[in-house]
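Q: What does the assembly look like in three dimensions?
Context provided by user:
Components: two
Sequences:
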Amino acid sequence: MAPSTASPAAPARPAAPVGVPLRDIVPWAVLALVLGAVLIYFVGAEQGATSLISGTWVHEFTHDGRHLLGFPCH
Amino acid sequence: MGMRTLLVRGMLAGLAAAAVALLIAWIYGEPQVGHAIAFEEAQHAAHGHDHGDEAEVVSRTVQRTTGLITALAFYGVAIGGLFSIAFAFAYGRLGALGARATAALVAAAGFVAIELVPFLKYPATPPAVGNPETIGSRTALYFGMMALGVLATAAAVIVARRLVPRFGAWNAVTATVVAYVVLLGVVYRVTPRPEAIAEGFPSRVLWDFRIASLGLQLALWSTLGLLFGYLTERSVTRARAPRAVPAKV
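A: Here is the predicted structure of the complete assembly.
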């Protein structure tokens, strides 16, 4: 997938810059996805629709950020 | 261009973007949150709910300061990290677009996918708006719409890239955007809307709150895209410069 878009048939146009090879991106993508999902979950949903930790502290602490970022809060 | 560098840069740019969003939140958002809470309390008082002083778990002051700062910082770092991954996939694969233009485009696409698509159907709600009993379904719908935004945007980029050789960039992008908008229009029409606005809730507060929320997100994504683009463009230029020190991956 995603071969270089710089075709040799169009030498007049500036060549596409060299990007990061896909195989180098994937492990980092998995890491960022997992960590990002955890962070966004705790900011956006924990102790609202679902609770991993009992109580309401996380909900109340992130309350204003949750409302202002656009997540349903309560 | 090392992936590690990009990820760290994305998370730091996300943190800076969160700082800008924090300013918008304090100037434009918090006053509306305050109005909404005042309305909520007035209603409770009017209905004779004596509250029994339901023990405040976190004070308003903490919610407005440490709580808000932490929430925005976490969000900014998470979005910044994910942004850098999306940038790495896009850079060098969108024709001849350079680092700055790619970053700007990825930020615009991210804003649309993650904020605008869910917002148009399920806009941000201030305290006192929304029935607590529907929080489960509203959260599921919100995150579902976000997932749809991400998938549809990724699909649009892939489709547009395939159409470019045949129809040219302008036509390919126009056709893809039209299809994207039509798809969303259909989804918006058929998805439920479990919103409950308390009777008498000031519409101006609702409007101002929503615009503040949208503005905060716009500020966050713009700062992220522009700052990340600036930093990456600079490092690309330096790497290309003749006689550059070869180290510093």
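Follow-up: The helical segments of chain A are 22-44, 57-61, 63-69.
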